[in-house]
Amino acid sequence: MLQRVPRLELLTVGEAFQDLIFAGLPHMPRSGEEVRTARFVSTIGGGAVITAAAGARLGLRTAVISGLSRDASRALRRERIRVVNVKRPAEAHAVTVSMSTTSDRSFVTFNGMNDRLESRLPAALARQRAAHVHFAFAPARCDRWARIVGRLRARGVTTSWDFGWNPSVLASAGFGGLVAGVDFVFVNEAEASMYAGARRRAAAVAYWRRSARNTVIKLGSHGSRWVAGEPAGIDVTAPAPRVRAVDTTGAGDAFNGGFLFGLLAGRSPRDCLRLGNFVGARSTLAAGGVAALPRRNELP
Question: Residue 124 domain-assigned?
Answer without folding.
Answer: yes
